[in-house]
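[agent] plan:
  1. take the single chain provided in the ticket
  2. run structure prediction with default settings
  3. attach structure tokens to the ticket
  4. add a short note for the reviewer (M.T.)
[agent] executing step 1
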Amino acid sequence: MRDALEADFDGAIRRLAEIGYRRAEPCAFETRVEAFAAAFAEHDITAPTGHTFVIPVGEVSPDLDQVFTAARRLRIGTVVHPFIPPERWHDIEAIRDTAAHLNLAAKKGAEYGVRVGYHNHDWEISSKIEDTTALEALVSLLDPEVVLELDTYWAAVGGEDPVRLLERLGQRVSAIHIKDGPVTKDTSAQLPAGQGQMDVWGIIEAAKHLEVGIVEFDDYAGDIFDGVTASLRYLEAGPHDRPKGGAR
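[agent] step 2 finished; step 3 output follows
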């Protein structure tokens, strides 16, 4: 929703509410806390999760007190770190460093009553550490309090069956990103839920400890409001026949 929010912040959130969304996942929420708070209150939307940096990445070094104060203001229960670059997933020492930072952030978050999570892309899955995915190597080093928000589409692009991966990760996964498409790195080819190659309902069923499922597009060739409407209507209608072939 980034372009729509920049064009008309309150109007974009109002349209989400009119479509039927009652929960949303804001990004970089600490940079405009009161704008989000006002729009969410006006349009009866809550934010159980939010994306922003909680560990240093490159030149970015987050102010954790600012992040978690903002999260508490918006009643965000889980702050999800959204990105660590691909080159940090090829050796265990770099992954160990990432885990240490996430564990420290989780301890700080706990002071505010906020959990910390991590969101994957494809490279944490395609990179292997001693015959396991780099993401699972990370999980083995995380404190129990740190959760995962599994982007199921990027897991598939990275070469894993999201259903099997969810089964292995178990209760560590509290949230998932739901998206569909041809399961390629071409983000502009992403499609509403139910229109691509992803086994959406099999994935949802496999997420046994799921608290939040987030409709997401990294990019969309059409009108984004049409895309998020189609996804929501598909999910509201309940389980459908699963795809017979293709990457899942």
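[agent] step 4 note for reviewer: Strands lie at 49-51, 78-81, 115-119, 128-129, 132-133, 147-151, 173-178, 212-215.
[agent] ticket updated
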